[in-house]
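User: My collaborator sent over this chain with a note saying "see what the structure looks like." That's all I know about it. Can you take a look?
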Amino acid sequence: MPRLPPLTPIPGPRPSVVLACMLAVAVARPDRDATIVVDERTDNGDGNFFYNVQTSNGIEKSKTGTPGSEGQSNFQGSFRFPLDDGTFAEVRYVADEFGYKPESDLLPVGPELPEHVYELLRIAEEQRAAGITFDRK
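Assistant: Without extra context I'll predict from the sequence alone. Here is the result:
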C-alpha cells in the first residue's frame, strides 16, 4: 500500500484578519439608534388620512388615503431610504381601483411595444365597440 505524504497543518487566522473581520461587521451594522424626527398624523375617521414620518438616518414615508369610488381605500404616497453608496432610493406610488402603481428610477422598465401590437390593439378595440365577440372554445 503506498504511503501518503504527511498533511501540512493549515495555519489559524492571524489576529489582524480576525480584527479586520470584526471591524467590518461592526461598521456594517444597521443604525439601530435612529430616532423619529418628524411624525405628523391626521385621521378624519371617514377614510381620509395623512401621515408623514422621517427618521434621523434618512428614512422617510408619507401616505395620503381617501375613500374610493368602489368602496376601496385609495392611497397615494412615497417612501425613501439611504443606499450603501450614500444616495437615496425613492418610490412614489398610487393604489386605487386600478391597482398598485409604483414609480421609481430603481424599477426596471420593459422595452417599448412594437408598432404592430398597437395596431392589433386598435383593431381589437374597434371590434369590441362594434359588438363583435369570439367563441372562447
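A starting point for your reply to your collaborator: Helices lie at 15-28, 115-129.
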